[in-house]
Amino acid sequence: MAHFAELDETSTVLRVLVVGNDITTIDGVEDEQRGIDFLDDLFPESGTWVQTSYHNNHRHNYAGIGSTYDLAADAFYGPQQYPSWSLDEDYRWQAPTPMPDDGNEYDWDEDTTSWIETEIE
Questions:
Q1: Do 53 and 7 fall into the same domain?
Q2: Whether residue 88 sits in one domain with residue 68
Q3: Exposure winner among 9, 31, 46, 91, fewest CB in 10 A?
Q4: Is 56 in the same domain as 86?
Q5: Residue 111 neighbours by CB under 8 Å, 6+ apart
Q6: In terms of residue numbers, what domain contains 91?
Q7: What is the DSSP letter of 118?
Q8: In degrees rounded to 5, what are phi and psi of residue 32?
Q9: Are residues 40 and 66 in the same domain?
Q10: In a shared domain, residues 48 and 61
């Protein structure tokens, strides 16, 4: 099965649909354009279709509703969780400081740009 993300005019993902291998594959080779053509025919008023990988095999991340597609980088990435976070080389949002790896639970505090240990009641 192949997954395709529909993009709006701002390259935001509106939906992700599955297209069968019988449509996207010819002579045992997957062809993205065949899936795009199929979806364009099925939904003529739709936006732009871009294939995404459920297993993150290409385009860095699986596209989800609200994700963004960066054409220049050929990458999908999710919404930014906090203003201080930045995209890493794999197009995943990272905090300015890594979360402690001590087995405790933490929440991000944007005001102090630090991890605060979660109080368990």
A1: yes
A2: no
A3: 9
A4: no
A5: none
A6: 81-121
A7: P
A8: -55, -40
A9: yes
A10: yes
Phi, psi of 24 (to 5 degrees): -90, -10
Say whether both 87 and 105 belong to one domain. Answer: yes
Which of 95, 88, 91, 96 has the alpha carbon at shortest distance from 77?
91
Could you give the CA distance from residue 64 to residue 43 in angstroms, rounded to a whole number?
A: 19
* Residue 105 falls in which region: left (phi positive, over 0), alpha (psi -120 to 50) or beta: beta
Q: Which of 90, 68, 88, 89 has the alpha carbon at shortest distance from 78?
A: 68
pLDDT at 77: 97
Same domain, 49 and 101: no
pLDDT tens-digit map of 15-70: 999 999 999 999 989 999 999 999 999 999 999 999 999 887 789 999 999 999 99
Number of domains in the chain: 2
In which region does residue 113 sit, left (phi positive, over 0), alpha (psi from -120 to 50) or beta (all else)? left
User: Within this chain, do residues 85 and 41 fall inside the same structural domain, yes or no?
Assistant: no
DSSP 12-66: BEEEEEEE-HHHHEETTEE-HHHHHHHHHHH-TT--EEEEE-TT--SSSS---TT
- What is the Cα–Cα distance from 48 to 16, expressed in whole angstroms? 12
